[in-house]
Amino acid sequence: MSRINVVEHESANLEQKELLDAIQSQLGMVPNFLKVFANSPVALKAFLGLHGVAGDGELDGQTKERIALALAQHNACEYCLSAHTAIGAKSGLSQAEIVANRQGGSQDAKAAIAVKFAKALAEHSGEVTSGELLEIRNAGYSDAEIVEIITHVGMNILTNILGKASRVEIDFPKVELRHAS
């Protein structure tokens, strides 16, 4: 049971209903963590805005999911791990790739550098080394993509914290945090 209210459509105020309806029309469902965000329409709008901006850009969708999986595992957020395992599989990531992502890597050499960089950002609160920046540039990532990776790290840390603090009920096929094997 969630420790923070899950805003259901029936009990939502007008602003919350409009936001939940927009999410429903776009995704075909409203994930529980967004119902928790809906307690504060301004926070939900901020997240949706950030998510929308982060959804565009130069970084490919699979790499975004790889980063989300690595951070969900690293930050021990079972909700996010479950959600991004489902979303990652839907985006075409294999089970073996998902396991590699949870372990902080990738079967794809270039993506492995992005996941490693994202994990380093999270582990060191952004204090990455010049060598880590050089490594990601040498792997072929532009400054725009590096900024997008940083944005995705921040966004995923936000959702990991919300998922853990609220202990929101997982509404995706549940994936346990134990070490991926």
Summarize the structure in short:
The protein is mainly α. The chain has helices spanning 14-27, 32-37, 41-55, 61-74, 78-90, 95-102, 109-123, 130-138, 143-166.
Task: Provide structural commentary.
With 181 residues, the protein is mostly helical. It has two domains: 9-55; 61-166, AhpD-like, CATH 1.20.1290. It contains nine helices and no strands. The protein starts with 13 loop residues before the first helix and ends in a 15-residue tail after the last helix. The relative contact order is 0.17. The model has no long low-confidence stretch (mean pLDDT 96).
Note the main attributes of this structure.
2 domains; mainly alpha; 181 residues; 9 helices; AhpD-like
State the name of the first-level CATH class of the largest domain.
Mainly Alpha
Proportion in β-strands:
under 5%
Query: Rg, please?
Result: 16 Å
| CATH fold descriptor of the largest domain | AhpD-like
CATH architecture of the largest domain: Up-down Bundle
